[in-house]
Amino acid sequence: MIRNAALFFAVLTLLLFATGCWSRRELNDLAIVTGVAIDKIDNKYRVSVQVVDPGEAAGKKGSSGRSPVTLYDASGDTVFEVIRRMTTVTPRKLYFSHLRMFVLSEDLAREGIGKILDFFSRDHELRTDFYIVVSKGRAAKDIISILTPLEKNPSTKMFTSLEVSEKAWAPTVAIQLDELINDIVSEGKEPVLTGILIKGNPAIGKGKGNLETIDTPTNLQYGGIAVFKKDRMIGWLNEEESKGVSNLTNRLDSTVMEVACGNNGKLAVEVIRSNTKVKGKVKDGQPEIKVTIRTEANIGDVECQIDLMKSKTLYDLEIELEQKMKSDAERALSKAKKLKSDIFGFGEAIHRADPNYWQTVKKDWDKHFPSLPVRIKVDFKIRQLGTTGDSFQNKLKE
C-alpha cells in the first residue's frame, strides 16, 4: 500500500514538470500552403504559393463566391528570403506541412534546380511526400493559378491526377523530393519529372467562370517527361517515349495498349501487371544490359472482326503487343542516348555487376552510355477476354 502511494506521488510530481503542447500552433494563425511554383525572373526567384481559404474549402455552409484558394507571390535572391518577404502581404504565417504540389518553370529547370531544392529538403516543417513537376510552355505561377472542377483545391487535383495517371496510363511519373534528390546525386541514374501544361485560355482558367460550365474551358493536363542531367533539364520525351520509360524502369502498373485489328479496326488491351528486371554485365571489358519485361493483360475493347476463341489469334496478338512494348522502350532508350542521360539507372546495374569496372567509367558515364548495348526481351501474355468471348462484331459481317 505504501509502495503504491509512493509511486502515485512520484508520477504526480513528474506531471508538474510536463510542458504540454508548448510548440503548438493555432490554425487561425496559419496560412496552409498546398501548392508552390517557382520561376526565374531577371535573375531573381519568383515564388508563388497557393493558400487554402478554410471557409471556402470546407463548403458545408454554401459558398460566399470567393475562390477556394488564394495566390501570393514575391521575388528575391533566395527561396528562404522570398518566403519571409511574403509576410508583408499574407495575413498569416505560411505553413508548408500540407504541401501537395511543387511546380518548376521549364526555364528554371533548364538552368538548374539544385540550389532551390536545398530549402525544401532542409526546412523542418516540410514533409517530402509532395510531387514535383515541370510547367511546359507556361510560367509555373500560371499553373497554380488555374481553378479546377471537382476538386476545390487545385493542388489536390494535380496531386491525385498525377497518382491516377501514373497507375492507370503510364506516360507520367510521380516523383517526390527524396527520389529527385537521390537521382540528382546518384552515380549511374539521372532524374526525370513529369510535365504539366494548360489546355485552354489561362486568363479564363484563373476566374470562377472556369467552374461554372459543364465543359470546363481551361484545364491542367500532364504531358511528356522532362529529362535531366544532374539538376539541369536537357529535353522532353513524347508520350510513346514516356511509356517506354515506365516499361524500362519497372514503373508500369497499368495502361492501355492498342494494335491494328482486321482490315481497318483496332483492338485494345488493359495491362493488369508488369515487372521489369534489369541485369548488368561486363564481358571482356565491355558493359552490356539485359532488360526482361513480363507483362499480363486483359482484352478491353474489340472494334473489328476477329476470332478470339482461337489460340493462334491470341498468340499472334501477344507477339504484336510484345513488339509494340519493345518499340516504345527502344524509342525511349534512343532518345535518352541522344541526350546522353541515363534515366533508366543502367549505370547502377553495371555498378552492381562489376564495382571495379564502374570505378573506371563512372566519371564519364555519359560518354559510355550512348554506345551501351541494351538487349530488351518482352514476354506478353493475354489472360482474360472480358465478360464475353468472341466479339459480336463477327455477326455483323453478314
From TrEMBL:
Organism expressing this protein natively: Brevibacillus panacihumi
Name listed for the protein in its UniProt record: Ger(X)C family spore germination protein
Listed Pfam families: Spore_GerAC, Spore_GerAC_N
Protein family membership: Belongs to the GerABKC lipoprotein family.
Residue ranges of every copy of the Spore germination GerAC-like C-terminal domain listed in the record: 224-386
GO terms under cellular component: membrane
Compartments, record wording: Membrane
Keywords tagged on the record: Germination, Lipoprotein, Membrane, Palmitate, Signal
GO BP terms: spore germination
Domain (Spore germination protein N-terminal): residue spans on this chain: 24-196
Topology in membrane: Lipid-anchor
PROSITE patterns (alphabetical): PROKAR_LIPOPROTEIN
Superkingdom field: Bacteria
Statement: the UniProt record of this protein carries the keyword Membrane: yes
